[in-house]
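Closing statement on the zinc ion sub-project.
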Amino acid sequence: MPAKPLLEFNDCGIYCAAGDFYIDPWRPVKSAVITHAHSDHAKWGHDNYLAHSLSREVLLYRLGEISLETMDYGKTVVKNGVTISFFPAGHILGSAQVRVEYKGEVWVVSGDYKLEDDQVCQPFEPVKCHSFISECTFGLPVYSWRPQQEIFDSMNNWWRQNIEEGRTTVLVGYSLGKAQRILQGLDLSIGRVYTHGVIENTNEALRRNGVQLSETTRVTPDTNKDEMRRGLILCPPSSVGTPWMRKFYPYSFGYCSGWMALRGAKRRRAADRGFVLSDHADWNGLISAIQATGCETVYLTHGYTAPFSRYLSETGYDAHEAHTIYGGDEASELDQDPVKLVNEEGEVIGAEENIDSMEALAVDSATPLKQPLTDSEKSAALKKAKKAGGAL
Ligand SMILES: [Zn+2]
Ligand SMILES: [Zn+2]
C-alpha cells in the first residue's frame, strides 16, 4: 500500500495525519493552522489556533475569544515530529504560506498570495517544496495586472477631479487587505480619508498589533459633511446600495477589485469607476510562483482550478484540483457576511466553479441595479446640490 500523503483533503479541511492538525479547516477541529484572517480561511469554532503574529488582533476582533498561539515568519513549531513554519505570502498583513516538513518531505500551503510588493505586508517569498497547495483565484491568462502605481495614479486623479466637480469620492474595497493597500497608495495631500466602521475597526485592530497605518477618520453622524466632500470615503462591499452610502450624494463611486478586469463587472456593481487591483496573483504570477517552489506536485484549492490544472499538467506537473470552500474575499466580494452557496444537503459548496453565480448573488443581495447616471443627469444633480449649499 502506498504511504499516506503528508497532507490530504478531507471533509474538514487540509489535514496532516502525522501531526494531527489542519490548515485552514472549514469545520470545527481540535488544532487549526491559519494562513490568514480572511473569513473563508479563518473559521470560528476550532479548539486551538496557530496563526502569524500580525493576524492576532484581527482574528480576535473577528472571531472573539479564541485560544490563539502566534508565530513569526521563519520560526518553527513541531507537532508530533512534524515541523511547521510560516513564510510571507504577500496577500494581506499577517498572511503566511505554511511549510510542513516530515521525514525529509516538504509540502507548502500557499493560502492566498500575490507577488507584487504592496508596501503594506511583507512580500511573497518562494519556498522550495515537493508538493505545493496553491490558490488560483485568477488562474486564467486574461488576468494580467498592471503595475499598482498606474492604478493608484488613476485613483488619485479621479479623487482630484471629483473635488473639482463637487462630488464626494466613495471607494469600495474589502475591509481587510484592500482597504489598507488603498490607504497606502492614496496621495494624502489631496485630502483626508474617512472610513466606514467595518474598515475602521479593522484598522484599529491592526494598529493594536503595532502596524503603522496612515491616519483615517471614522464616519459618524457628527462628521462634517462639507469636509467629507473633499475627502475620500473608504467603505466595504457590504455598504454598496445602503442608506449609509446614499447620504454622501452627490458622489462618484469607485470599486476596487481584481474582478473589475471582467467585462461588465463595473456596470453590474453600478460603479462609476472600476479599479483593477487585486491581492491575488495573476496568471503569470501563479505560474512563476509555482515554478519557484521547484515542486513536482500541485494541488489547486480555489479559483479557476480546472483550466489551470489542465495547463499545469500539460507543462509537466502532477497537477490536481482539490475541493475546498475557499474563495471568500475577492471571490464573493461580500464583507463580513460572505455569500454562501449551499447545495441540496445544506452544505456550503465551493466558490471556485461558481464565480459567475457568486457575482450574480453579490449583485442581487447588495447592489441595487441602478444604471450609472448619464452626463446630463450628473450635471443636473450637481447643480441641485450646489443650489442646496452643498449639504448632503
Ligand atoms: Zn484571502
Ligand atoms: Zn481565499
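Residues 333-374, 384-392 have pLDDT under 50 and may be disordered. With this model delivered, the sub-project is considered complete and its resources will be redirected to Aim 3.
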